[in-house]
């Protein structure tokens, strides 16, 4: 059963950190962007590596999340906020930055690469947009590599609903999944 927590991405990330990530863990955000998840919320001792395809100020590595420049099995947790569009929709932005408009390929390639850099029993924390029906096939396809731990719903405020002018894409989801395999 999904748990609804707060109204901001940073609040949800803070809740996930409190529940799942011990102090002194090495954590990767492979889609860091401008750091919206991390707005002054890092817990003491959490070591965050910031990576993004774009060269934003303050990132540690400029890298495509489908080809990360890190050793195997090095991170305790990885945050992943891949570009989201409804399946089958093509956008110029995806083609410009990733040489593909196939969002399903990006999810698959990204989660496989994250699996490589995660320690055994490490956590993948993935943000998914859209409705729950859009999320279910993604989570089901990952069950061979990851075990679902928790789903967090990021509910939009009534002001955000008014700005959208539609009830489409009411929520985002953070899915916490544990890498299958024996801990070392």
Describe the protein's architecture and organization.
- The protein has 184 residues and is α/β, with parallel strands linked by helices.
- The protein has a single domain, classed as Vaccinia Virus protein VP39 (Rossmann fold, 3-Layer(aba) Sandwich).
- It contains 5 helices and 8 strands.
- Strands 1-7-8-6-5-2-3-4 form an 8-stranded mixed beta sheet.
- Residues 158-168 have low confidence and may be disordered.
Shape: globular
Mean pLDDT across all amino acids: 77
CATH superfamily: Vaccinia Virus protein VP39
Unreliable runs, pLDDT <50, ≥5 residues? 158-168
CATH architectural type:
3-Layer(aba) Sandwich
Please describe the biggest sheet, giving its number of strands, its sense, and whether it closes into a barrel: 8 strands, mixed
Instruction: From the alpha carbons, calculate the radius of gyration and give it in angstroms.
Output: 16 Å
Beta-strand percentage range: 25-35%
- By secondary-structure content and strand pairing, the structural class works out as alpha/beta
Please outline what is shown here.
With 184 residues, this protein is an alpha/beta fold.
Any key phrases for this structure?
single chain, 184 residues, alpha/beta, Rossmann fold, eight-stranded mixed β-sheet, 5 helices, 28% helix, globular
Layout of helices and strands:
Elements lengths: L2 E2 L4 H12 L5 E4 L17 E6 L8 E2 L12 E6 L11 H7 L4 H15 E11 L3 H10 L4 E10 L2 H7 L6 E9 L5
Parallel strand pairs: 1-7, 2-3, 2-5, 3-4, 5-6
Antiparallel strand pairs: 6-8, 7-8
């Amino acid at each position: 059963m999904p748990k609804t927590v707060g109204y901001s991405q940073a609040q949800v990330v803070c809740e996930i950190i409190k529940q799942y990530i011990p102090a002194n863990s090495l954590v990767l955000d492979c889609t860091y962007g401008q750091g919206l998840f991390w707005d002054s919320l890092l817990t003491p001792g959490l070591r965050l590596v910031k990576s993004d395809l774009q060269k934003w100020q303050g990132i540690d590595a400029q890298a495509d999340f489908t080809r990360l420049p890190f050793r195997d099995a090095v991170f305790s947790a990885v945050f992943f906020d891949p570009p989201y569009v409804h399946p089958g929709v093509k956008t110029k932005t995806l083609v410009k930055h990733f040489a593909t408009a196939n969002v399903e390929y990006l999810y698959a390639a990204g989660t496989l690469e994250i699996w490589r850099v995660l320690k055994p029993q490490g956590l993948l924390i993935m943000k998914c947009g859209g409705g729950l029906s859009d999320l279910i096939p993604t989570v089901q396809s990952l069950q061979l590599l990851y075990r679902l731990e928790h789903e967090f719903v990021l509910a939009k405020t009534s002001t955000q609903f008014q700005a959208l002018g539609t009830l489409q894409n009411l929520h985002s989801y953070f899915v916490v999944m544990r890498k299958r395999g024996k801990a070392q």
